[in-house]
Each structure stands twice: as structure tokens, then as C-alpha cells.
Amino acid sequence: MLVLGVESSCDETGLALFDTELGLLAHAIHTQVAMHAEYGGVVPELASRDHIRRVIPLTRRVLNDAGLALSDLDAIAYTQGPGLAGALLVGAGFANALALALEIPAMGVHHLEGHLLSPLLAVPRPDFPFVALLVSGGHTQLMQVEGVGRYRLLGETVDDAAGEAFDKTAQLLGLGYPGGPALAQLAEGGAPDRFKLPRPMLHSGDLDFSFSGLKTAVLTLVRKEGVAARVDIAAAFQAAAVDVLAGKSLKALRETGLRRLVVAGGVGANHALRARLDAQARQHGYAVFYPPLALCTDNGAMIAFAGAQRLAQGASADGRFTVRPRWELGGLTPA
Ligand code: KG4
Ligand code: ZN
């Protein structure tokens, strides 16, 4: 079965072709980062308009790259939510119109389910069950994953998401938007121990997170030390965030008795986080899995893949569509 994946929930247009026999055949992403950077954040209306411009050329590109035609498609999977309503509608409208014309099903996919299952696109791929650490710009969650559609929320952030904390801290350090990757790069050259930042909720006894206090602590530090110290401040922030994410992941593995950790979402691209989780896995004898680096941030491949899993479970598309800008992953069930 050949599935076209369409991602348009935020500021990346992602298209991909996933074949259930042959795997990922092609994927292409257009990022709007440069367009939104001028405004210091994503402007929803501009995001929607740009998705409209990109979605057809990117579809052509993945078909060309794979040497396939529209008539080869068996289904289309699109991000139904959560995300920006207007941006989601572009992908949903496109996917449903194309599916109608081709007389094939269009499957709405939960964006976070896409992230959650994306490590299954890597080699080696993890077996179920596993603990998933979902760390994106909008979410920070630990989930127990028993299978496709069988997710139990173990803990989540009570305020900012991890990616949001990276982005806001980067902004405080004058690194622009979205600053996560720039902050990570800056931190590489810094001394993480020069400044001591808090590890919020590390010992709270549960599996929840909090990042807003960390951001405030950085603000205080920047005011005191000035941006001249920003390399070391970046390193201190990253060390604190990594400590908390790694500490809570270990606790989740202990509490569930599971031996596999899967990391997904944009912050999963962070080298320091990966290095720490790898070291911790060796020390405590569990396995850790990541999506391919290019598929950590938003992309169409994870949507095509998740849609294919749902269709394989027998999920059906009814030809009507709706978008769900707010949608809890914990409420999903198997098809
Ligand atoms: O999963 P994603 O692409 O989009 C959402 O669904 O939110 O995640 C984007 C987030 C942004 O906050 C970005 O700054 C962060 O992931 N990010 C990183 C890195 N690469 C992306 N944060 C830290 N280190 C990185 N290398
Ligand atoms: Zn995402």
C-alpha cells in the first residue's frame, strides 16, 4: 500500500511517500522559519498562505523522486491536529480533494502520534511496548506505548514545552526565532558548570515537567551577567534541561518496568540530550531509539507512516473531514 503523507500543522509543509512493503520512498519539507523569523514567532495567517503555495509543488517533487504517479497512490494521510486551524485546513482540504478525485481514502492523523511512531522509521526499530519521551515545540510528555493507538500518559509539562523553553531562552540570548538549534550550537562551546540553574521538578516524585521557572532563572542571569556570558548561560540552560528530561525518562522506565525508551519531536535532535540518554541507557541497561535526524522535526513521513499503520488496523475514512486544533493524544484508541 502506497500512502502520501501531508503535514501542515505549523510552519513546515511536509510531503512524503511511504510504502508498507518498501518503506519510505521519498520525503520533502519546506520550512517557513525564515518567513516567520522577522516577526519573532509563527504568524498563523502567513503560515496557511505559504502551505497553499507549497503543497502541490512538494507533492510533485516526492512523486518525481520516487518515479511514481498520482495513480499509484492507495491512500492519503494528513495531519488533522493538533496545530494551527488555518494551517491544518490547507493540508486537510488538499488531502481530501485529492483523495476524492482519485477515489482513495483520506486518513486524518494525530500529529503527536506521527512523532511518537517516527522512531519506527529508523533501523533498528523498537518493538512495543516502550516509553516515549515526546519533546517538541508545543508538547513535553512521557507516554507508555503498548501498540499503535494504545497510549497512556505518564506525565507532561505543567507550563512551557521543552522546545518552547529552548526557543524562549534563545530569544533572551538574542539568538532569534526559533532559537532551539542555535542555542544548542552555542552551548557546545560553553562551560555548563559556570552558572548553576535550577532543575525544576526533577525530584517532584511524579513524571511531570516544568520549564517556565528555568526560563525566568535565565532571564535573571542574563540581566546580571550580560549577554557577554551567553555561551556559558546557553550551556547551563541546556545542561539543566537535559538533566530533567533524562532524569524523568529514567524514572518512567523504572516505574513502568519497561526496557525501551523512544525519543521523538524536535528537541530529540539535540546532541547533548542524545549523548546523555545514550550514556544513561548503557549505565542502566536499557535501549534507546530515535527517529532518523531529518525526521525529528515536523515532516510528512511520520504522518504517512502513522496513517499507514491506522489503515492497516482497518481504520476507515468517511470522506468527511474536520480539523482538530486541540486534540489530546491520550484519548486516542486503536482503530
Ligand atoms: O517537533 P517540532 O518540529 O515541532 C512541533 O511539533 O512543535 O519541534 C520544534 C521544536 C522547536 O522548539 C525547536 O527549537 C526545537 O524543536 N529544536 C531543538 C533542536 N532542534 C529543534 N531544540 C533543541 N536542540 C535542537 N537541536
Ligand atoms: Zn511536531
Question: What do these coordinates show?
Answer:
The longest helix is centred in the C-terminal third of the chain and has 27 residues, at 230-256. The protein starts with a strand and ends in a 23-residue tail after the last helix. A hairpin with a 4-residue loop joins strand 6 (130-135) and strand 7. Helix 2 packs parallel to helix 3 (85-102), helix 4 packs across helix 10 (300-312) and helix 5 packs parallel to helix 7 (212-225). The chain is globular and about 60 Å long. The protein has helices at residues 33-37, 44-66, 85-102, 111-117, 162-172, 180-188, 212-225, 230-256, 271-284, 300-312, and strands at residues 2-7, 12-19, 23-31, 75-81, 106-110, 130-135, 140-147, 150-156, 260-264, 287-289. By secondary structure, the protein is α/β, with parallel strands linked by helices. Helix content is 42%, strand content 19%. It is built from 10 helices and 10 strands. A 5-stranded mixed sheet has the order 3-2-1-4-5, with helices on both faces. Strands 8-7-6-9-10 form a 5-stranded mixed sheet, with helices on both faces. The structure holds 5'-O-[(R)-(carboxyoxy)(hydroxy)phosphoryl]adenosine and zinc ion. 5'-O-[(R)-(carboxyoxy)(hydroxy)phosphoryl]adenosine binds next to helix 5 and helix 6.
